Amino acid sequence: MKILLLDQGNSSLKLGWLEAGRLRFLGRAASHAALDALLPALPDRAWLASVAAPETRSALCESLQSRGIPLCEARVEAHQGLLPTRYRPEQLGVDRWLALLASRARGLQPCVVVDAGSATTIDVLDAAGEHLGGYILPGLAMMEQALLDGTAIRPAAAEADGQGLPQGTAEAIREGALQSQVALVERVRGGLAGAAPVVLGGGAADPLAARLASPVLRVEQLVLEGLAVLAREETACAG
């Protein structure tokens, strides 16, 4: 069976292809309009995980329907038996849940799962593979922009290099946002026993990876990996 996997986030649509049990990343699209250019063939089924606005999600669903592609949608409430969590299922974002599912499928527990994108999420899996809870922060770019939007600061563009204290406004803003997230990840990681790794994914993961002292495992497509796990487990759609 050929299965199209769709990770619809706040800023882009990521596509994966699951065939004969193997996951392949197809690429990233700005919207559903670019689907045809990325699809290697017509899939037998599609699995969708969406945290986008309702109208954006609906447009994608209608696009798949117009192509005659049967659609299954990942919902925490419908599939919660695959991953125990202390969170209320209706309050746990499907992207966070799938990233946790992917990490547990890799046998990485206990671990801290960090997905750094438009928002940064930090979640904990214990040694038994249970989700204990976590944090949601504005992403690095959003943190910086919020400060600029709320003040008269207009720094010249510059990159923080992480070498000592920042000595310019742009560096101070960027490094302040970055180090605040690094500190929280390290504190959460410090609460776990042993050499628990930080499983790190998302488009803004690189600067975090460069600053973290804890052992880091980079996983480029955590949500798509989780969707692949779900698609293998659920032979029929639920929810």
Can you describe what's shown?
The protein is an alpha/beta fold and 239 residues long. The protein has 2 domains: 72 residues, ATPase, nucleotide binding domain (Nucleotidyltransferase, domain 5, 2-Layer Sandwich), CATH 3.30.420; 137 residues, 2-Layer Sandwich (Nucleotidyltransferase, domain 5), CATH 3.30.420. 35% of the residues lie in helices and 25% in strands. The chain has 8 helices and 10 strands. A 5-stranded mixed sheet has the order 3-2-1-4-5, sandwiched between helices. Strand 4, helix 2 and strand 5 form a beta-alpha-beta unit. The longest helix has 22 residues. It is globular, with a radius of gyration of 19 Å. It starts with a strand and ends in a 6-residue tail after the last helix. The model has no long low-confidence stretch (mean pLDDT 89).
